[in-house]
Amino acid sequence: MAQAAAVAKPPAPPRRRRASATPRRLPYLLIGPAALLMLGFIAYPVISVFYYSLQHYNPTKPWRNGFAGFDNFVKIFTDDAVFQDTLVFSAKWVFVEVGLQLLFGLALALIVNQTFVGRGIGRALVFSPWAVSGVLTSAIWVLLYNSQTGVTRYLADMGIGSYGTSWLSDTSTVFSAAVVADLWRGVPFFAILILADLQSVSKDLYEAAEVDGASRLKQFWHITLPHLKDAIILSTLLRAVWEFNNVDLLYTLTGGGPAGETTTLPLYIANTSVDAHDFGYASALTTVAFVILLFCSIVYLRLSKFGGENK
Which of 238, 285, 280, 279 is nearest to 263 (CA)? Predict the structure, then answer.
């Protein structure tokens, strides 16, 4: 008996603690309040726009307010020539701006990606306009285009043009002037994104191409561009949406003039809601603009095969 008692019993296996669900849920609990606030701030305006698009709503004419059904949308497509003109100009504005910004942004990214003295300062100067707000950008260019103290005054002193010329009030020059002003701020956006992607390209690819006798142009076409495909697609899509919704710069520069030459669809919506107080019709215009952007974005991503393998 004593010998049996002396034999030590094997220790009992440790009990496995039940994994608590709280640590797994903790991140969601922490971001929950912020997510609900963001959802509220985003969902409520969107739902309100769709609701008021089906209403006649003008605070200055309350006796006309009420359910409109699809009357606002019928008016947009059948009895609103301004909508058609602003939509055409918006497409022109987006195509020209995004195309030029991509071209110059790609060129700047390739330049500042090289090794040279003062590269850090050069990059800071190239990217600095992107940190300037749209209203401040337009204020700067309003001063530059001022007929008394701006660029045209100094050009006239050199015998180029005439005194008192205002590029922003001339229908033949206002579009080009607005494009240049927006290029100054928009080009750094492409340069930043493309430069970030350029730095991830392996140097071995270029070294192997040089060994095979590939020229700089062939290296750019067969190595650099395929690597930048997704970055270019994403940046052009984002910038196209932003340029389509551009209100601050054009409103401050031209106010949509002269003679409505620079009125985009979002600027027309802003004038309809703020100046005319026709919030129902402006909401319908906003809904149409949303559908147009959504459709064009889906088609663009499908045709460009965003995220697909490069062949």
Answer: 285
